[in-house]
Amino acid sequence: MHLQGDDPVLEAIRNFIGREVAPHVESLEATGDYPDHLVGQLRDLGLFGLAIPERFGGLGLDIGTIARIMEILAGGWASLATYVNSHATVSYLLTKYGTPAQQDHYLPRMATGDIRGALTLTEAGAGSDLQAIQTTARPQGDGFRLSGSKIFVTNGRRAGVLLALARTDPAATKPSRGMSLMLVDKARAGVEVGGDFSKMAHGLVDTCEIHYADVDLPAESLLGGEPGRGLSWLLDGLELGRIMIAASAVGLGEAALAAATRYSLERCSFGKPIAEHQAVQLELATMATKIEAARQLTYEAARRKESDGRADMISGMAKLFASETALEVATGALRIHGGYGYIRGYAVERFFREAPLYIVGEGTNEIQKLVIARRLLEAAREGAA
User: Fold this and answer.
1) What is each CA distance from 343 to 244, 284, 349, in whole angstroms?
2) CATH number, span 118-228
3) CATH 1.20.140.10 in the chain, residues?
4) Boundaries of CATH 1.10.540.10 in the chain?
5) Which of 341, 228, 319 is nearest to 274 (CA)?
6) Averaged pLDDT for residues 194-201
7) Which residues does 118 contact at the CB level (< 8 Å), separation at least 6?
8) For the packed helices 63-76 and 230-266, what is the interaxial angle rounded to 10 degrees?
9) Residues carrying CATH 2.40.110.10, the chain
C-alpha cells in the first residue's frame, strides 16, 4: 500500500506528534518513566504493522511510505522511531522468509502490537563482524538447543519474540553458510534478560543483554525451515533497517533545523535578530541543503529496495549520508543557540545527544563505506570482464 502526502494515516501521525509528543518530550525525558501511553498510541495507530501485509492485520505499506513515517516519528521524538524500527525488521523477515505456520502464529499479534519483536545479533566479541558470533543453535532431538549471549538488544526487555542469529553448523567451511535465524518466544525457559545499558540518549528505549542459557527450541523455530540461510536473509532485512535509520536521521535533522531557524528569528544580538547575520544564514542554508539531499537519497534507496530487492549499496549510502548530516545539523543547531544549546530543556541539547546513535547503529558508518566500496569495485570488475 502506498500513502499519498495528504493520506489520513500520515495526517493522523502528524497530529499525534503535534498534540501528544512534541510539547511533552522534555518532561517525558526528565521523569525517566517508560512512555507506555505513547507506545499504546503507536499501537492504536497501527504502526507496529507497518511492514506486515493486510491479510495478517497489518498496514502492508511500501518501503517508501515506511521511510516517510519513520521521518515523521523521529522528527517528533527519536525514541518513537526506535520503538518501531527493530520490530519492523523482524516483521519484514517473517513476512518474506517465514513459513506459513510461522507467519500465522506471529504476524497477526505483531501487527496489533500485542507482541513486539526484537533482533538479537550483536555479541561482546562480534559487532559489525556478524560472522564472528559464538551463539549456537545445535540440533537436539527434534529441535535445537540455543546457547549464547547477545548485547545491545533494542526493545529487548519488552519484546515478546526474539529473532536470534546463531550458528546451526559451527563446522561449516564458510561461516556464513552455517548460520541461521531462530524465532524465540522470550517466555521460553532459559531465556534470561540481563542488565540494561545506560546510554547518552534514547534513555527510555530499553537496550539490554539477552542470555540464551541452553534454550530448547522446537524445529519450527528455525525461520523459513531452512538452515544456513540466516546471514543472507538478515542482510536483506538490515537493508530495510538502514533505510529506516536514514529516514529517522532525516527527521531528527529536520527538527534540529526548525529549532535553529525559530531561535535565530527570536534571538537578538548587536541590535537585530541573529537570523540577519550572514554567518547564521550561511549555516542555515548549508543545513537545509544537506537535509534535503539526505531525504532524497533515502527515498531513492527505499524506491530501489521496493522495486529491485537488493539495495545494499544505496541503503548504505543513505544511512551514511543521512546520519552524518543529522549529527552535523544537530551540532550546527547547538552552535546557533550558543550557550542555551548546552542547557537541558532545550530540544537542541537532546538532538545533539540523540544524533550519534545513527552513525553507529545498524552497522557503523565505517562498515557502510566498506559495503559501498565493495559494490563499486565489483561493478568495475564486472565491467572490465
Assistant:
1) 29, 21, 6
2) 2.40.110.10
3) 232-384
4) 8-116
5) 341
6) 94
7) 86, 87, 90, 153, 154, 155, 156, 159, 161, 162, 163
8) 40
9) 118-228
Least confident of 213-217, 244-248, 267-271: 267-271
Percent of residues in the chain assigned helix, strand, coil, to nearest 5: 60, 15, 25
The correct CATH number of 232-384 out of 1.20.140.10, 2.60.120.560, 1.10.3210.10, 1.10.10.10 is 1.20.140.10
pTM of this prediction exceeds 0.85: yes
CATH classification code of 8-116: 1.10.540.10
Give the three cell numbers for residue 30: 526528565
Measured N-to-C along each axis, helices 78-97 and 36-44 cross at an angle, to the nearest 10 degrees, of: 50
Residue 310 C-alpha cell reads as 537488493
> Catalytic residue numbers?
362
Phi, psi of 21 (to 5 degrees): -115, -65
* Distance from the first to the final alpha carbon of the chain: 40
Asked if the model's pLDDT at residue 2 lies above 60, the reply is: no
